[in-house]
Amino acid sequence: MTSKVRQTDLARLYRAKSGRILAYLVAQCGDIQLAEDALQDAFIKATTDWSVGTLPDTPEAWLITTAKRNLVDVWRQQQRHQTLQQQFAIDSLDSATSDEAQQEIPDERLKLIFTCCHPALNRAAQVALTLKTLCGLNPREIARAYLVSETAMQQRLVRAKQKIRAAGIAYAVPSGEDLPTRLASVLAVIYLIYNESHTAFEGQTLSRTDLANEALRLAHLVCQLLPHPEANGLLALMTLHQARQQARQSAKGAYVPLAEQDRQQWDQTQIAKGRTRLIGALSQGNPGPYQLEAAISAVHCEADSWHTTDWHQIVRLYQRLYELVPSPVVKLNELVAAAQIVPVNDILKQLVQLESALEDYQPFHAARADLSARAGQPEQARRDYQNAIRLSRNQVEKAYLQLKLTQL
Amino acid sequence: MQYMALIYAAEDADDVDLNTLIQQYTEFGEKAAAAGVLVDDGNALQPVSTATTVRLRNGKAEITDGPFAETKEQLGGYYILDCDTLDTALHWAAQIPSARYGSIEVRPVMQFD
Fold this sequence. Notes:
Helices cover 67% and strands 0% of the residues of chain A. By secondary structure, chain A is mostly helical. The longest helix of chain B has 17 residues, at 18-34.
């Protein structure tokens, strides 16, 4: 082992371990901010201690012990404000710090993710807090990924932590009847992080791949700690998406739609993994929205080409999804799939009913543009492509729509 | 007859510092209690940034961050709930009959050490 510990090694250690250590510390002290400060100070101490000496045998245990000592110090300083219960917690913390290295620390991350994704926090705060506490990303990285200033991101994080403390949001896995809705909130946050990875940004440290990987890592974590069919459904869905990721962009970086993708580029190992996980989830007989979306993705993955896709099956799956999630977006997807097996003009008539609800939804205009072109209505197609371009916030997507417009 | 006084003020509009304000509230409390008009001690609430709103729709509790948004809904009453966590408080709040058509804003009561 080298005597010098490099800054990059520490950064890697932080990304890999901080979520688990932090969750454990929050379980001890009951406060995210206190735990974060204690862990931060432990890492700062590691930077100096480890750069002059050798790396401890178990860096994780060293960090936990040091962070716990920091917590005890903070509590000691505030001693006169303490209740008897807190006094007891300090004593037990203090005595527990010595034999830390021998023990496997319990994984408390499930509690932390339920706290961070509590519906009493707004979605932006849920996403930011999850990336910060569980993925160990710093506010600057998160700020860049979400196109806000670092100050604004800091404030968002501080406000969220204040609300957790002041409003008494519990650090716990929700009980029985609350579990499905609260899990839905956790999964929505993970899927949002994953989908954000598809939006292109320029000049940032956090790449799209990083965000996708964080989402996959979180989904794996939830599946491991809480093997619920919908959690597995989401992980299967993201795995199947990820398997086709390579084919979504041409060598020059242009967007390639599913119909035109080179299916040789699809990752068959990932597809097999996603399918196996999905079948496992479906076998529990409780197909929720993520499992149905994953099933749709799986049907696409099975087809040799766009034309040999089992469109009847896909339409049926969208119809089942619509029963669970009666949203106009689901209806749009169903109609676009149905356009492969029923006359395009029938579909165009049905799309009219969705227009007011999906006025600001880019894929609605892009889909209708494509169908209008197929139905021999270039004027309507032109208007729709122009609207889609206006609504798109992704340069790669914009370029694709522009190309389709010029090809009319 | 009993009257409930609900205190509305912009959260950053105090004309005095916090200590003076607490002092003034304490004096008012003592004065009103001595006069026999005070039913209980009253409460201060945590800032609006700690608010959570619950609505019961189709039998399911919808929980959102922040105060209620429908301006046509007016404050019509209140309960003080004593619960360990926000989840428990939201559970009870969702069972208040008006949650089925209106909204229940849940805000923690300020605690002075």
